[in-house]
């Protein structure tokens, strides 16, 4: 077996979107990922399904892995012929001990690459509204460790030169030594009134910023209860925060939002939550699979020319409808029916396929579609409803009552997907989720089933938002308290109500 390769990768400061393109490539390529607590867990979702994950933090049977143990793991996995990605918070070259790991790989003849990352000392201040350089305040910048080797008997930092020789100073992991740092800077000539900012968990929804001066920042830190991991920035640029802070002003900052849509649909909602400053946690509760009653769908597709109307009630229905058409090698041009869609997303999916939607309701549910259609329907017309196996019966029942001949076919079946139930329960126990979103009645039912009714008490204090009244009714019936219902029954409507 040949040797593998090791990528020594900077994962960025915490926000998973701040990883580099190259860094993300190495995650997707890895057979084994060795990661620490400062690397966002959400980055691991990009890895291959069969990837081996090794956490360098605390383990049940021992404390944190030593650097020597980490070096050994990298060597062993590479010698097994694996592609190994060593994922470190921030940039691996800035107090990330990448040099020691690279030296060990060289010793064993293992090929490696160093992939730089965005360092927290620059990113955290930027997210706190503090650019580390500004022409009106400074022309020099120093990056200093605030946590030197514990075995040192005295500091190796040149405090007399550092205190007055550099305008902006950034200390990494120095909150525990904050009194000593402030004392040394003042002792060697820095004004006690020099502005200081402490930024904990920068670029994440837990970001916490405390501002003061060298004279009072220790007291302010104690009052705020701020601890590591945090960046200390000393210098006049800290004054810019009053004017430039932006991240904490986002409407969903500090909120972790559970997204319960199917995995294939979650991205749109998740992206908008992240754009508004929240952290989306995807807990897909539904997966779509081909229908068990495939013959009924196939028969309807082969007889498309016989229908006067085809009414679509979801984008999933559209996707599976056309997927099966392709599999059967049937030509959509046999369709002579008028097309109706329950909402704008469904209409857009149809228009992408080259079909003109003639009816689009004002209210995006079955009742709204019926109201919009009523004047155009005639008794005896044939209607095809390609839908999910769990679709509501309102539409076919009312169409039949109006004298139309309705053919219902399942274009897909829905199944519960509760793969992440234990992780979600743990987050709820920790009080780490502030909002839960539901986009259909089936997601509500599957949520209660996946968590278990005995765990619903964990939802106390958690806000629940639903995409529409039908979903909200289901939630209420199952014992959940709904705090908000979208006015427009769309993802954008749900975002607006959040």
Largest sheet: 5 strands, parallel
- End-to-end CA span: 54 Å
> How would the global form be characterised?
elongated
Task: Give a count of the beta strands, DSSP E runs of length 2 or more.
Answer: 20
Pfam families: HEM4, TP_methylase
Protein name: Uroporphyrinogen-III C-methyltransferase
Enzyme class: transferase
InterPro entries: 4pyrrol_Mease, 4pyrrol_Methylase_sf, 4pyrrol_syn_uPrphyn_synt_sf, 4pyrrol_synth_uPrphyn_synth, 4pyrrole_Mease_sub1, 4pyrrole_Mease_sub2, CobA/CysG_C, Siro_Cobalamin_biosynth
Helix/strand layout:
Blueprint: E1 5-10, H1 21-29, E2 32-35, E3 52-55, H2 67-79, E4 83-88, H3 98-107, E5 112-115, H4 120-127, E6 141-145, H5 159-165, E7 168-172, H6 178-187, E8 195-200, E9 208-213, H7 217-224, E10 230-234, H8 241-244, E11 256-259, H9 266-275, E12 279-282, E13 286-289, H10 294-302, E14 309-312, H11 315-327, E15 338-341, H12 344-352, H13 366-373, E16 382-388, H14 394-401, E17 405-416, H15 421-429, E18 435-438, H16 441-451, E19 463-466, H17 469-477, E20 484-485, H18 491-497
Parallel strand pairs: 1-4, 1-5, 2-3, 2-4, 6-7, 11-12, 11-18, 14-15, 14-16, 16-17, 18-19, 19-20
Antiparallel strand pairs: 7-10, 8-9, 8-10, 13-17
Helix pairs in contact: 2-3, 5-6, 11-12, 13-14, 16-17
């Amino acid at each position: 077996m040949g040797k593998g390769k090791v990528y020594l990768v900077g994962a960025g400061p915490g926000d998973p979107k701040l990883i580099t393109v190259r860094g993300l490539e190495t995650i997707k390529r890895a057979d084994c990922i060795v990661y620490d607590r400062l690397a966002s867990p959400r980055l691991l979702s990009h890895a291959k399904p069969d990837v081996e994950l090794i956490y360098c933090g605390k383990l049940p049977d021992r404390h944190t892995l030593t650097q020597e143990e980490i070096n050994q793991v990298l060597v062993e996995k590479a010698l097994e012929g694996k592609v190994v990605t060593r994922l470190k918070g921030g940039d691996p070259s800035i107090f990330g001990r990448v040099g020691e790991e690279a030296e060990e790989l060289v010793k064993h003849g293992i090929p490696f690459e160093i992939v730089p990352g965005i360092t927290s000392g620059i990113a955290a201040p930027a997210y706190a509204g503090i650019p580390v350089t500004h022409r009106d305040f400074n022309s020099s910048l120093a990056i200093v460790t605030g946590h030197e080797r514990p075995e040192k008997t005295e500091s190796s930092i040149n405090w007399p030169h550092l205190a007055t020789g550099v305008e902006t100073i950034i200390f990494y992991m120095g909150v525990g030594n904050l009194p000593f740092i402030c004392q040394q800077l003042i002792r060697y000539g820095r004004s006690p009134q020099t502005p200081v900012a402490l930024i904990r968990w920068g670029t994440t929804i837990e970001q916490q910023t405390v501002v003061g001066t060298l004279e009072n920042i220790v007291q302010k830190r104690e009052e705020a209860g701020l601890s590591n991991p945090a960046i200390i920035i000393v210098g006049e640029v800290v004054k810019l925060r009053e004017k430039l802070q932006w991240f904490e002003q986002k409407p969903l900052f500090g909120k972790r939002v559970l997204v319960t849509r199917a995995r294939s649909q979650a991205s749109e909602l998740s992206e908008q939550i992240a754009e508004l400053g929240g952290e989306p946690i995807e807990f897909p509760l539904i997966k779509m699979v081909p229908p068990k009653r495939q013959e009924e769908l196939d028969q309807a597709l082969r007889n498309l020319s016989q229908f006067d109307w085809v009414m679509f009630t979801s984008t999933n229905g559209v996707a599976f409808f056309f997927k099966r058409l392709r599999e059967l090698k049937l030509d959509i041009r046999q369709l002579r029916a008028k097309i109706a869609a329950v909402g704008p997303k469904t209409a857009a999916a149809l228009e992408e396929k080259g079909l003109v939607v003639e009816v689009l309701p004002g209210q995006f549910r079955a009742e709204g579609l019926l109201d919009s259609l009523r004047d155009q329907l005639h008794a005896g017309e044939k209607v095809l409803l390609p839908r999910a196996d769990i679709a509501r019966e309102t539409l076919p029942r009312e169409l039949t009552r109006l004298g139309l001949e309705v053919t219902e076919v399942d274009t897909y079946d829905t199944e519960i997907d509760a793969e992440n139930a234990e992780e979600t329960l743990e987050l709820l126990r920790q009080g780490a989720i502030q909002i839960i979103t539901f986009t259909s009645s089936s997601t509500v039912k599957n949520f209660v089933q996946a968590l278990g009714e005995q765990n619903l008490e964990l939802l106390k204090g958690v806000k629940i938002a639903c995409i529409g009244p039908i979903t909200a009714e289901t939630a209420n019936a199952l014992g959940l308290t709904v705090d908000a219902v979208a006015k427009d029954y769309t993802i954008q409507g749900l975002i607006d109500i959040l």
